[in-house]
Amino acid sequence: MTKDIVVRPSSLTTFASCPRRWAARHMQDEVRAAGYTLAQGRATHVGAQIGTAVHAAASHTLAEKMRRGGDLGTDADAEEVGIEAFRERVAAEGCDWDTITGDPDTAQKQIRRMSRVWRRSEAAAGNPLMTEERLEAEVRPGLIASGQMDAVMTGDPDASIRDTKTGVSRRANALQYGTYGMILRAHGHNPGEMIEDYLPRVSIRKEQPPVEAHSVDIIAAQEEAWEAIEALAATVEEFRRRCADPNSRPPNMAFRANPADSLCAARWCPAWGTDFCRAHIQAPRSADEKP
Q: Where is the PD-(D/E)XK endonuclease-like domain (predicted)?
C-alpha cells in the first residue's frame, strides 16, 4: 500500500526553492532507506527559536482571551510562556546565534519586547475561534496537508486567518497561506481573509518596530499552493518509483537541486555535501594539477 504524503504548509516554500533540500528535511527516513546519507542534525537558528517563543506568547494570549471572555491576561505571564518555550527548544535543539541575537540574555530581552508589541497590535484585537489547533485534510488523493494555524478569527460572515511571522526580513509565504485556506475549507469554514502579522527581529540597541499587518489574496494563494502541491506529489511519487526500480535513473535526481538558493549551505541543508546532493562536491585533483 502506498504511503500517504504528509506535508506541512510551511514547508511548501522550501520545496519551491529547492526540492532536494525539502526532501532532506522532510523525508529523511525514506531518503536514508534508499541508501543515501544525510548530515546529522545541526543547531536551530536563533531566528527560528525566537519565532517559536513569540508564537508561544501569542498563542497563550489568545487562549487567555478565549478563556476569559476578552481579557488578554498579563504581559508578564505571556512573556514567561515565551521565555520557557525558548529555553526548552534551545535545550533540545541547540541554538545557532547571529549578530542580531548573540546570546541567551539578548534573546530573552527580544522575546519580551516583541511579545509585548504583539499584544498591543491588531493581531490580538479580534475574537479568536481557534489558536494553534492542528488540522489535517486530504487535499488530493494520497496527500495530507497538516497545519497548525496561529489563529482563526470569527468574522462577518467569513472567518479570517492570522499568521504571525518574525525575522530580520519579511519573506513571501503565499504557498503556506493558500494551503491553510484549503485545510480550513475542508473543516467547514470559509476563509474570507488572510492576514500576515510581521514582527521584525532587530538589535536591542534599536527600538522595537511595530507589527506590520499585510493582507494576502487568499484565492490567489490557494491557486499557487495547489500547483505546488501537485508538483510536490508528482516528485515524491517519481522518487519512490525510482527507488523501486533498480534500473531507473538515480532516485535523488527526482528532487531538483537549486545550488543558487540563498539557503544552499551546510548551515541550512542536511543534504549539502552528501551523496544525496553532489552539487557542491568537487572532483578529486589530478596528480599533476597544482593546488
A: 9-271
C-alpha cell recorded at residue 5: 504524503
Tell me the Ramachandran region of residue 215: left when phi exceeds 0, alpha when psi lies from -120 to 50, beta otherwise.
beta
Place of cell 494520497: 142
- Model pLDDT for residues 206-262, shown as the tens digit of each residue: 999 999 999 999 999 999 999 999 999 999 999 999 999 999 999 999 999 999 998
Provide the residue range defining the domain that includes 143: 44-216
Q: Residue 291: pLDDT band by 50, 70, 90 thresholds?
A: very low
Residues paired with 140 in a beta bridge: 143
Mean pLDDT of the chain: 93
Asked if 128 and 151 touch (Cβ cutoff 8 Å), the reply is yes
Asked if residue 223 belongs to a domain, the reply is: no
Mark which of 151, 184, 216 sits at the end of a domain: 216
Chain centre distance of CA 230: 19
Q: Using the structure block, give the residue that is written with the C-alpha cell 519565532.
A: 51
What are the cell numbers at 51?
Answer: 519565532
Name the nearest CA neighbour of 178 among 6, 13, 4. 13
Same domain as 270, residue 159: no
| Structure-block grid coordinates of residue 47 | 531566528
For the stretch 117-160, pLDDT in tens is 999 999 999 899 999 999 999 998 899 999 999 999 987 678 89
8 A C-beta contact, residue 165 and residue 199: yes
CA 42 to chain centre: 17
**18 and 69, same domain (yes or no):** no
d(CA 10, CA 4): 18
Are residues 235 and 146 part of one domain? no
- Listed residues 169, 192, 216: the one ending a domain: 216
Largest CA distance in the chain: 78
